[in-house]
Design goal:
23% strand, 4-stranded antiparallel beta sheet
Length: 226
């Protein structure tokens, strides 16, 4: 006579979409024209922590080969995972086209997903990167132009701007886990710095372009019109 019925709450997972499927709509910001959403986003952000607007998380300079796709728990904006599995630590690629969708993990050497650092065919010399034709991954200078025009001081300013930049967090280079969703924004530039690369970083107390980080991290991409 025991009641063994389980009350299961429905869970709706939301997967980011490929770069090639992202809607291309322009938005003007000062003298620049940008795509109005992140690559892989299903819509323009409606909140700082809108999971449908986070989009993909790319390792710097890596092509859109599936490693960037993320899956979110639609009911919890800070809970998610990579769609593809992660590699073992230091299973680095020997070419700029790894040939698989797994997120490459590293905690040694140059902290790059590529075994021997080389910039040909990566975003520094082929700035289009995963962006659609007519657009490119912005340089650090171009991000700085947007930051200066917007007078951004935090992640509220970046979201409230015409670009509607959500705090999409990052994917970690050591364990492949997603982190800081709803709190931090990390947007790659095409500009490399030493063994790392420059990016736009914002959170509740600042928004800056002078940071650089390891190329094996997964950050978001917002494309700028040529």
């Amino acid at each position: 006579g025991a009641d063994n019925t389980l009350a299961l709450a429905p869970r709706i997972d939301i997967k980011s979409i490929p770069a090639s499927a992202t809607a291309v709509v322009d938005v003007t910001f000062g003298t620049q024209k940008w795509m109005d959403r992140n690559l892989g986003a299903r819509r323009v952000a409606t909140a700082i922590n809108d999971v449908l607007s986070y989009g993909n998380h790319y390792q710097w300079g890596r092509p859109a080969d599936g490693h960037e796709i993320s899956v979110w728990n639609g009911a919890t904006p800070t809970s998610g995972r990579g769609f593809a599995a992660a590699t073992a630590l230091e299973a680095l690629s020997t070419t700029t086209t790894p040939g698989h969708p797994n997120f490459i993990l590293t905690n040694a050497g140059t902290l790059d997903w590529l075994a021997t650092q080389a910039d040909p065919d990566r975003w520094a010399t082929a700035k289009q990167g995963p962006c659609p034709a007519g657009y490119h991954v912005p340089t650090n200078t171009e991000w700085n132009t947007a930051d200066t025009f917007g007078a951004w001081n935090n992640n509220t300013d970046t979201y409230n701007s015409a670009l509607k930049l959500p705090s999409a967090g990052y994917r970690d280079r050591i364990n492949g886990l997603l982190g800081s969703q709803g709190a931090n924004g990390n947007y790659w530039s095409s500009t490399f710095h030493g063994t790392g690369a420059r990016y736009l970083y914002f959170f509740s107390a600042a928004a800056n372009t002078y940071f650089y980080y390891d190329r094996a991290y997964g950050f978001t991409v917002r494309c700028l019109k040529n």
